[in-house]
Amino acid sequence: MDGPAVLAAHAVMQRVLSGYPKQYAKSCAFSAKGLEVIVGEERGMYFVRIQRRPDKCGWAPGTVLGFDEFELYAVSTEGKVLARYPYLP
Questions:
Q1: What is the pTM of this model?
Q2: Rounded to 5 degrees, what are φ and ψ at 45?
Q3: For the chain, how many helices (H) and strands (E)?
Q4: Alpha carbon distance 82, 65 (integer Å)
Q5: Which H or E run includes 20?
Q6: Residue 82's closest CA among 3, 1, 8?
Q7: What is the mean pLDDT of the chain?
Q8: pLDDT tens, residue by residue, 54-88
Q9: What is the share, in percent, of the chain residues with pLDDT greater than 90?
Q10: Beta strand pairing status for 81-84 and 71-75?
């Protein structure tokens, strides 16, 4: 990945991780290890998809920890999160 794509992924991961309950901070399923990050670029903007993957932390495949299957964000090349896709799970 190029530098701006890494910045975009990092900015979104920080936003997602900061939204998790503090009491779960040491849990793998609520850490960067438990996330799948996909970054795409279109027209000078990055689109970052975050999907929770508790199976990366030893949970059974297909385990769902919440209602959101994934989150999608638009991010500038400077790493500023511009918007979250407004959908209802």
A1: 0.83
A2: -135, 150
A3: 1, 4
A4: 26
A5: none
A6: 8
A7: 88
A8: 888 988 887 777 665 688 999 999 999 999 997 65
A9: 51
A10: antiparallel
What tokens appear for 89 in the block? Answer: 């799970």
Residue 26 amino acid letter: K
Predicted local confidence at residue 67, as pLDDT:
60
Query: Given pLDDT bands bounded at 50, 70 and 90, which one contains residue 38?
Result: very high
Q: How far is CA 13 from CA 30, 52, 74, 79, 86, in A?
A: 11, 11, 13, 11, 18
Q: Where are the beta strands (DSSP E) in the chain?
A: 35-42, 45-52, 71-75, 81-84
Q: Cα–Cα distance between 33 and 78 in angstroms, integer?
A: 24
pLDDT of residue 26: 87
User: What tokens were used for 30?
Assistant: 């609520």
Q: Token digits for 34?
A: 């438990």
Q: Which two tokens stand for residue 23?
A: 């009491």
Phi, psi of 55 (to 5 degrees): -65, -20
